[in-house]
Amino acid sequence: MTDTGGAVLITGICGRLGKHLARVLHRERRVVGVDRRPFLDKPKDVEHAQVDVRRKKLKDVFRAGDIEAVVHLGVMHDPRASAADHHSWNVAGFTKLLEYVGQFQIPKLVVLSSANVYGPQAQNPQFLTEESPLLGGQNFSDIRDLVEVDMLAQSFFWKLPETETVILRPVHILGAVHNAPSNFLRLNPIMTVMGFDPMAQVIQQADVVHALELALRPGIRGIFNVAGPEPVPLSRMVKILDRQRLSVPYSLARIVLRRLWSLRLTTFPPPELDHIRYVCMVDDRRARQVLGFAPRMSLEETVRSVDEGRW
Amino acid sequence: MAPPSLATTTSRALARFDAAARGAPGFLRRLVGSAEETLDDVLERLLGERFDDRMSRVPLALGTSGVDPFGLDPQWAKYALSTVAMLHRKYFRSEVHGIENVPTGRLLLVANHSGQVPIDGALIGAAMFMDAEPPRIVRAMVEKWAVSLPFVSLLFTRIGQVVGVPENATRLLAQGEALLVFPEGARGISKTFDQRYKLTEFGLGFMRLAIETDTPIIPVAVVGAEEQYVSFANVDSLAKLFRMPAFPIIPQLLLPGGQLPLPTKYRLWFGEPMRFSGDPDDDDSVIDEKVWLVKQTIQSMLNRGLKERKHIFW
């Protein structure tokens, strides 16, 4: 990576991925963070602006100057938050951010989307390419705003061709992060759907950070599916973790999960059951060839990392 | 995370029950264990060698976890193959001709479809594993709705069958697999008895696929499947009512034991590889001419097979 003196602006820097990326980048370049949460154990040379991306104050961060790249990690995906909150944060907030990227002619924009935008479906091809339709919201309306963020970023390709826009669509991210796949593998026993054992891809958070780093290199633009080690059946991951497995018929699982969800006893919204029934795997050839990405973590390390750093 | 609650306690209790149910009947496990040993012996007798030895010669793209990217697991395939091996060798006593025509590397097996129940596909799979050298595991494409059925989807995936979308076909061929296609589809399998061994209309997709991926086509003629279930008519209104592709009237089903297919003798004829070139996105009429060539080849192989057949049952 060449040090050109320009800063990297990271939205959502106080999330686990954001912190991880900041720690990797701050030795080589100036890092500016934007997050409405406080950054507790911040490295000294990282500047942090505790602002809401929807506020005008965000513009001041851009004005303060010399920002060379924007990495957008600040996507809200809290299944308990209301649809309105989701929309205003993810869509309205991101639109503001895009506006400033255009206005201040930032040469690089990296957006962390997700392979979930394709959505798990029975009729999915085994490996989805970057050109596959984004059907994630079809059966799971709560993630429509995430699909919209991806689409907004795509519109940037032609709206502002001079900005190098990169969209990364990683598969299920595992690690100390508190996302649905990691939380799912932390269950004991792990619930599976009887009679289904789909092939799945996972990626360790450190590998995602590595992919983000690669995406920041000048000359890289476009959409990239990012996958970790080779795909394996879900049951293999359960075996690696040495957990109990409880398989429940789908109809029962759906009823129980709906009830638990309405009683606020679970963090898994019922439509997510499709992820443990159907495939939603990506073809990551482009990331390997153009981005030069290859996962550094083995399957065992990746899967076991959900148990690290817990308290 | 959910707070430790009623839900967690219940699921823990359930897990304990699950473990107890699995652990307690030790004799059952021994029974399964010994059944597995006998299965190995039976397979060895049918194959003339250890199953694992034969399996190790199959060109497969297995990952370190022992499963291929599409979810094929050789250990599962063993159970499926032992069943079809019995059908192939003992029940239908299939004769296999021209299997030496099958080249190594990627290929499309294009066959006539018949017999109300797709046993023809299973027997072609058995022949490719038991009689071809190197042995191959045939991949076929399954209906999309089958993938949403519990257990069925799992079984199909583990024995190498994939969802029927073009992307999967292209990728499997790129991986060097043998793909089985029935261009007649449901039209062929649900033919009535008077239409036996008359090919119905062929779909064009397989030809476009073969041209696009430069894959040789092996025409396959299956003789013997048409007589396993004798269907006198198809009732369209009932088919529509039950949302089935066809509703055949098969009187033998009413007889005791008639639910099993009649033990006809199968004859599988593998033709010489056919290669096609051109533009895969050509007009239907251009593709149709090439498809016609394949269809005629299979029809003449069928006619020859029928002529050489002395008896339906032996």
Task: Summarize this structure briefly.
The complex is a heterodimer of chains A (311) and B (314). Chain A has helices at 16-25, 57-64, 83-103, 144-159, 180-186, 205-215, 234-241, 250-262, 285-291, 299-304; strands at residues 7-11, 30-34, 46-49, 67-72, 108-112, 164-170, 172-174, 190-193, 199-200, 202-204, 222-226, 232-233, 245-248.
Describe it.
In chain A, 34% of the residues lie in helices and 18% in strands. Chain A has 311 residues and is of the alpha/beta class. Chain A has a 7-stranded parallel beta sheet with strand order 3-2-1-4-5-6-11, with helices on both faces. In chain A, strands 7-10 form a two-stranded parallel sheet. In chain A, helix 1 (16-25) links the parallel strand 1 (7-11) and strand 2. In chain A, helix 3 (83-103) runs parallel beside helix 4. Chain A is globular. In chain A, 49% of the residues are buried. The mean pLDDT of chain A is 90. With 314 residues, chain B is an alpha/beta fold. Chain B has one domain (57-308): Glycerol-3-phosphate (1)-acyltransferase (3-Layer(aba) Sandwich). Chain B is built from 11 helices and 9 strands. In chain B, the strands form 2 sheets. A 7-stranded mixed beta sheet of chain B has the order 1-9-6-2-5-3-4, with helices on both faces. A two-stranded antiparallel ribbon of chain B has the order 7-8. The mean pLDDT of chain B is 86. Chains A and B meet through strand 12 of A and helix 1, helix 6, strand 4 and helix 7 of B.
